[in-house]
Design goal:
By secondary structure, the chain is of the alpha/beta class. The protein has 8 helices and 5 strands. Helix 1 packs across helix 6 (168-181).
Amino acid sequence: MLHRYRVAMVRMDRDPLSGEVEVDETFVGGVDHGGKRGRGAAKCIVVVAIELVRPRGFGRVRLRHIPDASGDSLVPFVCDSVAPGSVVLTDAWGGYNELAKHPYIHNAVSLSASPDPAHVVMPGVHRVASLLKRWILGTHRGSVDPVHLQAYLEELNFRFNRRTSRSRGLVFCRLLERAVVTGPVTEAEVLHGYLWEAKHKM
């Protein structure tokens, strides 16, 4: 049932993020002692996009489990998640270079050259990444199978984007309504992972 609810949390017609949007990757999962760290490490990679609300605050969020941190994975995520004409804020990682060919205003900041730490330069994505890791470690005891990771990310999307709701009961009621009209989730998808890209606009 939880997998079915997570599928129901995704609206096919949900609006893309807009305005100023921070985008960065984070890594979910442990590293063996002496193991490699950074973008080349053998961990699950999650890319995060979050709206900035000026002068202070955050709007909606999107998260996606991607196979690697290359432009082939990062740029399609931005195009799927962020409305054309938006300002996209990233670090200077080369995987974002191809954004220049798409209808965005791309502002890249070199974190190594900045006098401020990464969580100050890009506060939104680091806040969400911290929430994600604490949630997986605390609620799920750090055990999330990679084939089901996107389902958990969609749940975090849903929860975060409704964090300011004054009626938690109404949010749950809407989720039940969505679950009733959502198509079936097969046993194979419960066991081996739901086909998110094939069935949803992510």
